[in-house]
């Protein structure tokens, strides 16, 4: 929790500064306090939809439960905020398939490769047999970077030369995962310009080819988003979802922004589970997303 807290410090500082009346008990429970909460949520990029929903629920609870103190309002607000983040969360049973095949997509720089590296390390430490695949064949550096992560995590990495067909890499990876009885296969992909239709076609082909080797796979297609780009992450998510159908999200770089409220916005808009959030560059800074802890870190 302390890493989560320090990772979210920019958002917390900005958010709690905006909540002077609520947090520091400077005003009575009433419209002024509600306006302040609304503004703080909007400044944190929680978005109109989520902010409305939170405020409506809070106002209802204030009147129904006759909340009189700041402490009561704050407790209810936290529960409502966590509830909104929880709405589309689903359990993630990695043991439900063997191998469990995860396709990781997102634009360059969003944090795909590091996310794969960190997850491979974490799961391998937990005793799972992990295999990674360097599917971003567009950039030599991406292949090398993943190979470096895989060595550090001591897991095999399926790779071909720069310029190779990414679906051939994915094909090899799934076959290798089955042959080696891996528990989890993590497949990296290219991410040049999300508007590039070639990229979407390439990713569709990767998905199709994976399904040819293992008919119900990929078992999860994860979109990695850079949390520091704020509202733009929503249009990005829509583009990927329309073309490829995403199952879940990872949001990185929340340590670099005061707009960490974007999580409320993206959950409200995309109605998808968030698996992990990134709050720093270290391996332990990629944290399983827990709505209640996230909300607590914004207040404490
Ligand atoms: P890719 O192009 O999508 O594969 O992106 P990379 O995995 O190469 O990540 C791009 C950069 O973002 C790297 O320098 C990572 O260390 C950095 N990065 C990834 N996640 C986080 C995070 O949660 N916080 C911070 N501060 N940096 C991150």
Automatic annotation (TrEMBL):
InterPro entries: AAA+_ATPase, P-loop_NTPase, Signal_recog_particl_SRP54_hlx, SR_rcpt_FtsY, SRP/SRP_N, SRP54_GTPase_dom, SRP54_N_sf. Its EC number is 3.6.5.4. It is an enzyme of class 3 (hydrolase). It catalyses: GTP + H2O = GDP + phosphate + H(+). It is a peripheral membrane protein. GTP binds at residues 106-113, 188-192, 252-255. It is found in: Cell membrane; Cytoplasm. Transmembrane segments: none annotated. Belongs to the GTP-binding SRP family. FtsY subfamily. NCBIfam families: ftsY. Involved in targeting and insertion of nascent membrane proteins into the cytoplasmic membrane. Acts as a receptor for the complex formed by the signal recognition particle (SRP) and the ribosome-nascent chain (RNC). This is Signal recognition particle receptor FtsY.
């Amino acid at each position: 929790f302390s890493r989560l807290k320090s990772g979210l410090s920019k958002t917390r500082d900005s958010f709690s500064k905006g909540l002077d009346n609520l947090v520091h008990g400077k005003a009575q429970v009433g419209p002024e306090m509600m306006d302040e909460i609304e503004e703080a949520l909007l400044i944190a990029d929680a978005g109109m939809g989520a902010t409305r929903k939170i405020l409506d629920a809070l106002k209802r609870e204030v009147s129904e439960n006759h909340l009189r103190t700041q402490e009561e309002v704050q407790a209810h607000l936290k529960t409502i905020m966590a509830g909104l983040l929880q709405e589309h969360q689903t359990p993630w049973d990695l043991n439900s398939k063997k191998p469990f095949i995860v396709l990781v997509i997102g634009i360059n720089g969003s944090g795909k490769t590091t996310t794969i590296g960190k997850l491979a390390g974490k799961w391998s430490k937990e005793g799972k047999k992990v295999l990674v695949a360097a599917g971003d064949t567009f950039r030599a550096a991406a292949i090398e970077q993943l190979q470096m992560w895989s060595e550090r995590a001591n897991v095999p990495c399926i790779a071909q030369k720069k310029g190779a067909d990414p679906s051939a890499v994915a094909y090899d990876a799934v076959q290798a995962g089955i042959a080696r009885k891996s528990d989890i296969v993590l497949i990296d992909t290219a991410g040049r310009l999300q508007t590039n239709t070639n990229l979407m076609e390439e990713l569709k082909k990767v998905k199709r080819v994976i399904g040819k080797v293992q008919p119900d796979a990929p078992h999860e297609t994860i979109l990695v988003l850079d949390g520091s780009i704020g509202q733009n992450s929503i249009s990005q998510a829509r583009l990927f979802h329309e073309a490829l159908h995403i199952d879940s999200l990872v949001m990185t770089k929340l340590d670099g922004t005061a707009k960490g409220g974007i999580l409320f916005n993206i959950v409200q808009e995309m109605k998808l589970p968030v698996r992990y959030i990134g709050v720093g560059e270290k391996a332990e800074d990629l944290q399983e997303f827990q709505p209640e802890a996230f909300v607590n870190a914004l207040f404490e």
